[in-house]
Design brief:
This protein is of the alpha/beta class. It has 2 domains: about 100 residues, Sandwich (Immunoglobulin-like), CATH 2.60.40; about 200 residues, Rossmann fold, CATH 3.40.50.410. Helix content is about 30%, strand content about 25%. The chain has 8 helices and 16 strands. The strands form 4 sheets. It has a 6-stranded mixed beta sheet with strand order 8-7-6-9-10-11, with helices on both faces. Strands 1, 2, 5, 12 and 15 form a 5-stranded antiparallel beta sheet that branches. Helix 6 links the parallel strand 10 and strand 11. The two termini are about 20 Å apart.
């Protein structure tokens, strides 16, 4: 994959065939650039919140400190919320047209309000996954492409979350920009190609209780994805514009929340059509406000490593009450 850059550092052109090949691959790629058997480069999102809001001043790299157990890890790079950013918006919308149109209108409004350091790419997250628009700063082109997206098919979020995270992490590690993903979905757990409502029973196993416990197949799917998603480093924000209220859909939404929070993301539920605009605005605020902290870690290969990121004591005192949000565990490739 070849990247050319303008003066702001953002990619000017992507070979679309390479992107599509990467997205549709069934192989979950590694989330860090491998250097040797025990050392890897990481770029993690970090939110610095004071009273629930971003800090008033911009922080520098020497104001962060990283600990892996008792080991101090030196940060090697920092990209601030004002630095060049690539934002992927992925669509999994196949339901009520009124909700979809409201989401598209709100999305176009949010994209129009982004600064010129933002490039946006559009992904159709139904099967098969397609790149609806390569990353671009052209706001009018993005608006046109959003209006052309299809809303026919089955729900695809559970099947496309990991491939999209793989794509975005690959771009993150090959470029010098922040990268984030916003999923817009109206998925219902009963609208997947996989039947999560009535999982098949293994008749040869008398201990198979799948049909006795509703949602067992969904629980197993989420558990497998929890293990896999720790390999990726991009924040993923899910905006559900039509969440179901039955017990199984609530379990599905809780599972999505667990998945995205592993990487510092959020799952936002719109309780009504009137909430869609505010939910999308909150998603964009979260995608805008993180620092990207780079460092190299040496740890046991093939295991999760515990990470704690704080501010240096002097900076912490000037900030007053603050809270850092970041991935607490990272996978060592």
């Amino acid at each position: 994959m070849i990247f050319l850059h303008n003066k702001s550092g953002l990619p000017i052109h992507y070979f679309i065939a390479a992107l599509v090949a990467l997205v549709v691959s069934n192989t979950v790629g590694v989330a860090a650039k491998k250097t040797n058997n025990s050392s890897a480069l990481f770029k993690l999102p970090v939110w610095v919140l004071t009273n629930g809001n971003p800090p008033p001043q911009e922080l520098s790299v020497n104001e962060f400190q990283i600990n892996h157990g008792k080991l101090r890890v030196e940060p090697t790079s920092l990209r601030s919320p004002n630095s060049p950013t690539l934002l992927f918006v992925a669509f999994d919308t196949v339901g009520e047209i009124a909700n979809i149109m409201e989401a598209r209108t709100a999305l176009i409004h949010e994209i129009q309000g982004l600064g010129n350091q933002y490039w946006v790419g559009l992904i159709s997250a139904n099967e098969p996954i397609t790149i609806a628009q390569e990353p671009t700063p052209a706001r009018e082109l993005l608006s046109e492409k959003i209006g052309q997206l299809s809303q026919i098919g089955k729900a695809g979020l559970l099947d496309t979350l990991l491939p999209v995270a793989d794509l975005a992490t690959s771009v993150l590690l090959k470029t010098d920009v922040r990268v984030a993903v916003i999923f817009i979905t109206d998925s219902d757990i009963g609208n997947y190609k996989t039947d999560y409502l009535n999982a098949p029973v293994n008749v040869s196993d008398s201990r198979d209780l799948s049909r006795r416990f509703a949602g067992r197949a969904l629980q197993e799917k989420i558990t497998r994805m929890n293990k896999a998603i720790s390999k990726f480093q991009v924040p993923i924000i899910v905006v559900h514009i039509a969440p179901g209220e039955d017990p199984l859909n609530r379990a599905y939404q809780n599972g999505l929340k667990q998945l995205v929070e592993i990487g510092g993301g959020k799952c936002l539920l719109s309780k009504s059509m009137g909430d869609i605009s505010s939910s999308l605005h909150e998603a964009f605020e979260w995608a805008r406000s993180f620092y990207l902290l780079g460092f190299r870690l040496t740890a046991a290969k093939g295991h999760l490593a515990d990470i704690e990121i704080t501010l240096v004591p002097k900076e912490a005192q000037t900030m007053g009450t603050y809270r850092l949000v970041h991935p607490n565990k990272i996978y060592m490739p």
